[in-house]
Automatic annotation (TrEMBL):
<dbReference type="GO" id="GO:0005524">
    <property type="term" value="F:ATP binding"/>
</dbReference>
<keyword id="KW-0963">Cytoplasm</keyword>
<keyword id="KW-0460">Magnesium</keyword>
<keyword id="KW-0547">Nucleotide-binding</keyword>
<dbReference type="InterPro" id="IPR003442">
    <property type="entry name" value="T6A_TsaE"/>
</dbReference>
<dbReference type="Pfam" id="PF02367">
    <property type="entry name" value="TsaE"/>
</dbReference>
<dbReference type="GO" id="GO:0005737">
    <property type="term" value="C:cytoplasm"/>
</dbReference>
<keyword id="KW-0479">Metal-binding</keyword>
<keyword id="KW-0067">ATP-binding</keyword>
<dbReference type="GO" id="GO:0002949">
    <property type="term" value="P:tRNA threonylcarbamoyladenosine modification"/>
</dbReference>
<dbReference type="GO" id="GO:0046872">
    <property type="term" value="F:metal ion binding"/>
</dbReference>
<protein>
    <recommendedName>
        <fullName>tRNA threonylcarbamoyladenosine biosynthesis protein TsaE</fullName>
    </recommendedName>
</protein>
<comment type="similarity">
    <text>Belongs to the TsaE family.</text>
</comment>
<keyword id="KW-0819">tRNA processing</keyword>
<dbReference type="InterPro" id="IPR027417">
    <property type="entry name" value="P-loop_NTPase"/>
</dbReference>
Amino acid sequence: MILRDAAATDAVGRTLAGSLRAGDVVTLSGPLGAGKTSIARGVLSALGLAGEAPSPSFAIVQPYAVPEVRLPVLHVDLYRLNDPAEIEELGLDDARHDHALLVEWPEHAGAGAWPDALALTISIEPNNARRLTATVPAAWKDRWPT
């Protein structure tokens, strides 16, 4: 899917929010500045967050709870993790019981993390467009917009 501008990137996040459920993991991969946080912000905005969500780069995990949003979400940025073993300390697997996870830089969690995740990869194209590719697991087959 080609995303021609920032509005299209935001729209992907907004559309995704309509299908998101507690227990879901959505991974967002791509280079710096590709639009990972923009998609997450679109999700959070569509879930009712007033104002712009901060990037969780320094906090690593930014929680959003009801009534701030309609569905509890953890926005996670693993960029600063040095070792995949650190992921366990974040308690993300326990949080999945009642939260959805939006995970930027999932490759820092190590191979095989969240095999059931909707895996979105964003690349930068000419003219500031973005290419979005999705690896869609069975749980998302009827929910992911194609």
